[in-house]
Design brief:
The chain is α+β, with helices and mostly antiparallel strands. The protein has one domain: Roll (Nuclear Transport Factor 2, Chain: A), CATH 3.10.450. The chain is built from 4 helices and 5 strands, in the order ααβββββαα. The longest helix has 24 residues. The termini are far apart.
Length: 162
């Protein structure tokens, strides 16, 4: 009976882990690039010891002013796995339930599906318990100004005078 129960939980954990990768692979390519950007920044942090995977999206939005340009905003969660940082093949990594989620917000400009370096992409990730209302407000302000820093939306809105 105990062996059967252990088998059931192992299969469930494997399904949950593969389901997370399936959720990531179902994201549109432009949103996956933002998740990858956040994961790259997170893994470069010296205090991070575990491998993280995309857990789920909270909010997604994009503005397409034209000319193959998009402004992307994605608010999502990352979750620690039992694998060590630097794991290349994450298919066998199972989520840890003893660590808080990482709350991430990214915003960036794409041109023809590629992230532009100007304006600089904004990536903000923090453990959920440490996220404050001030941080949330700062995220929104930074992402709102990102679209206008290139001048394109205001230029297109200009009608000129006679």
């Amino acid at each position: 009976m105990a062996a059967l129960l252990l088998l059931f939980f192992s299969a469930g954990a494997l399904f949950f882990s593969s389901n997370a990768q399936e959720t990531y692979s179902n994201l549109p390519e432009t949103y996956r690039k933002g998740v990858d950007l956040a994961l790259e920044k997170l893994s470069s942090h010296p205090g991070i010891q575990h491998h993280f995977l995309f857990f789920r999206s909270n909010t997604k939005s994009d503005i397409e002013p034209g000319f193959d340009v998009s402004y992307i905003y994605h608010h999502f969660f990352l979750k620690a796995t039992k694998c060590q940082k630097g794991t290349v093949d994450a298919t066998g990594c199972q989520f840890r339930n003893d660590r808080p989620l990482i709350d991430c917000a990214v915003c960036y400009k794409t041109f023809r599906g590629q992230i532009e370096q100007e304006p600089k992409p904004y990536v903000h990730c923090v453990h959920r318990p440490a996220l404050t209302q001030e941080m949330k407000t700062e995220r929104v302000q930074r992402c709102n100004t990102l679209g206008y820093s290139s001048g394109a939306p205001t230029l297109l809105a200009s009608t000129g005078t006679k």
